[in-house]
Amino acid sequence: MANEGTTNVIFRVRRYDPDRDAAPYYQDFTVPVPPGMVVLEGLWYIKEHMDATLSWRVSCRMGVCGSCGMLINGSPTLACNTQIHDVARDGLLMVAPLPNFDIIRDLVPDLGPLFDRHSHLMPFIVREDHDEMQEPSDQYWQSADDLLEYLQFTYCIKCGCCMAACPTFATDPTYSGPQPLAQAYRYMIDSRDGAFEERKAILAGEAGPWRCHYAGECSAVCPKGVDPARAIQLMKRELVLDYLRLGKLRRRKPAGVLPPEKKRGRREGIPEHPPFTVEGAG
Amino acid sequence: MPEVKRYPNRLGIKGWFGGGRWGVERYLYTLHRLTGLGLLTYFLMHIVVTSRRALGAESWTAAMATVGAPIFKVGEYLVFVAFAFHAFNGLRLVLVELGVLTGRPEEPVYPYESSLDVQRPFMVVMMIAAAVVMLLGGYEFFFMAH
Ligand code: FES
After folding, report:
1. Per-residue model confidence as pLDDT tens digits over A152-192
2. Would you say the ipTM is above 0.90?
3. Which atom of ligand 1 is nearest to the CA of A159?
4. How far apart are CA B85 and CA A29, in angstroms?
5. Angle subtended by helix axes A178-188 and A112-120, to nearest 10
6. Dist. CA A60 → ligand 1 center (Å)
7. Predicted structure pTM score
8. Spelled out in words, what is the top-level CATH class assigned to the domain B23-143?
9. Which CATH architecture has domain A112-259?
10. Cβ of residue B34 closer than 8 Å to a chain A Cβ
């Protein structure tokens, strides 16, 4: 059904079938695009009407899962929240898989190296009180200011756009890259964490932030506003301060469980929950 | 799991230059690297030339006569330009990399503002300062009697 304002846009899609093709090539598809249509819908249109073999990765369709990162008109971004008319130029839209990752098929990059680096940099809270962590007696006590130190970086959806945009990662496969480093900082600065020395042993070395020279491209393309470049510079700052024995992290005790005198009851004016609709719930 | 055939897609040096629509800081990053390599090359040449002094007065005079040619003068000015850029941009990078010009983390609310926006005014000031020094240097190099 053609809506008002529908125009044809040529999707120039980078194709690669590992069983058939020696190298990727571009293929054109003409897609009728109504206002508001996103790149992902354009790809679905191609798959349903023109070529069922076209492959890409997708899950949530709403900018949450990080599956659909691809290179759209030269910029790494999410296909599901990029409107075609916003980015098409002269009726042409180039769609390619995220660079700096091997191509598995068509628009599907192999994000394995991202996840390997990510897990190598300890993206989790490390503490000594294992029993408390497994069977929490209460919440850990963290102030709103402490939360703000890392909140921005928790919005990462691991789409890989920053890695595709990073000029250092483009030439240096040994560099950890913006996504893993931003997540390493997110846990390093978390006031509940107690493993600064362990993290430092990894981050002050080769895997650390030192190859970053602030091209800032990761932050420019991040579809979630995570600003990995900021995290990486703040990480350098902490590591340098620590080297000069001026850092606060080496002396920090991980936040403990909420002390009883800090406990408050329910705030006034917050209504009770409605009655449960399922028996036995609550 | 069967081994999947993959096609390598790393951008390499091409990735330094981006697609032409990317942020200005990316180009400063690339220029910083290129000027750094240029200054290093100059430094090595400088050592070779000045070491001629150790080979005697004649060798030294001959070397001085060669590098006195106009092309070397232009070359020297280019070294000066590279120096001015590298120095001022380097100052910005030091401050950014120590977290002075990145701003504090904040909750991302659309339209997102990043650390790039925080450091940008300073970047502009540094680039203007570099340009002024380049112009003054050019005047000194080409128009003042030596
Ligand atoms: S499909 Fe989940 S982020 Fe695009």
Report:
1. 999 999 999 999 999 999 999 899 999 999 999 999 999 99
2. no
3. 3
4. 46
5. 30
6. 5
7. 0.90
8. mainly alpha
9. Orthogonal Bundle (1.10)
10. no
